[in-house]
Amino acid sequence: MNMFSIWAGVIFGAWPLIMKKSGLTPMAAAFVLTLMSFVAYVPFLSRADYRTTGVLTVGFGLAALAGVMNGMGTIFFQKMVADKSIDITVGYLLVILTQIVVVSVGAWLFYGDVFTWKKVAGLFTAALAAYLLTSK
């Protein structure tokens, strides 16, 4: 078992609950989250290997695009967290289920990952979970 996955899951599961309790507006919450994430990264920057990267590479451009997309996702996520009419449990689980589908299809399209019967069954189960979570 990969402990990094477990720790990431615990932390990613906990911070939205803390952020919702903060009562900040979505944009303020997104800004504070981004700023404090940067603060968390700083101690690790000196250990990074920069030899294979450069400002004028395709890899840097793709990383920049991923960063912009992450920022947009953070704003949408914070709007969901701040919305008092949304049950955070349902909203958060729908985010995770959507990510599962996007990663599965994207990995198949861009990296040649194989759709095994277990993955297909898992995607159908995720769709069923989304339906059950959102139906009254």
General description of the model:
By secondary structure, the protein is mainly α. It is 79% helix and 0% strand. The chain is built from five helices and no strands. The protein has helices at residues 3-22, 26-45, 58-82, 88-111, 117-134. The chain is globular, with a radius of gyration of 18 Å.
Give the CA-CA distance, first to last residue.
36 Å
The major beta sheet can be summarized as: none
Q: For the residues shown, what is the average pLDDT?
A: 87
Query: How many strands?
Result: 0
**Shape call:** globular
How large, in whole angstroms, is the Cα Rg?
Answer: 18 Å
Contiguous helical run count: 5
Reading the helices and strands in chain order gives HHHHH
Q: From the helix content, strand content and strand pairing, which structural class follows? A: mainly alpha
Helical percent range? over 70%
Please report which band the strand proportion falls in: under 5%, 5-15%, 15-25%, 25-35%, 35-45% or over 45%.
under 5%
Uncertain parts: none
